[in-house]
Specification:
binds adenosine-5'-triphosphate; Rossmann fold; 35% helix; globular; 7 helices; 25% strand; five-stranded parallel β-sheet; three-stranded antiparallel β-sheet; ATP-binding
Length: 191
């Protein structure tokens, strides 16, 4: 269980959120207006940003889709995923290729270095990498950016299937994605 206690974040004189308290017990959507501080909150949970005050507990090992794709540009999509797996990844390679194919990425796309993939293909790679990595908490910052409706539906189905019971916070403004996921929505508008 992930808990956020009395969290406040300020940049200079600007306060993003104040005294935020939240418990995340399973997969949830994080919804807030643009500029509220969702990315900043996820970065605090990832340990990349210090809160002004307050604490977070129970995050453990994090797997993430960052706001940017953060792929190794010279590696293929499959290699970007196997990179996060311990030991020899050979045994998982076949299943990872199947995941990409289910995600609409054909052999031609899988032969390319990540630098030459489309925006939506890069996003799919970042998402599969996060799902394959061993983690206690999943933090997903707008993971559906650049995906067409069919790909979005496949991504939502994969997330529903793979996330299990662990805490997940998925930041999105995409109402269709929220509907497809069917997860509880944490609305931070008035936090
Ligand atoms: N390092 C920083 N220094 C100063 N201000 C920052 C910094 N990082 C973010 N901000 C500001 O904090 C505010 C919230 O940014 P953030 O990216 O967390 O919002 P968001 O809710 O994720 O927005 P969006 O939905 O548009 O992606 C913005 O006004 C942004 O300019």
């Amino acid at each position: 269980m992930l808990t956020i206690e009395h969290l406040t974040k300020q940049f200079g004189k600007k306060t993003l959120f104040r005294d935020l308290c939240l418990t995340v017990e399973g997969p949830a959507v994080l919804w807030a207006p643009s500029g509220w501080g969702k990315t900043t909150l996820l970065r605090i949970l990832m340990g990349l940003e210090e809160p002004t005050s307050g604490i977070v507990q129970g995050v453990g090992r994090v797997a993430a889709v960052f706001q940017e794709d953060r792929l190794c540009p010279q590696l293929t999509a499959v290699q970007n995923v196997t990179l996060v797996l311990p030991g020899s990844a050979e045994q998982y390679k076949e299943q990872i290729i199947k995941d990409f194919q289910q995600f609409g990425m054909d052999a031609a796309a899988l032969a390319l270095p990540a630098a030459r993939l489309s925006g939506g293909q890069k996003r799919r790679t970042a998402l599969l990498r996060a799902l394959w990595a061993a983690s206690d908490t999943l933090l997903l910052d707008e993971p559906f950016t650049g995906m067409d409706p069919d790909t979005l539906a496949a991504a939502a189905a994969l997330l529903r299937e793979r996330c299990g019971e662990k805490p997940v916070l998925l930041a999105t403004h995409d109402r269709e994605a929220i509907r497809l996921l069917g997860w509880p929505v944490v609305e931070l508008e008035n936090a």
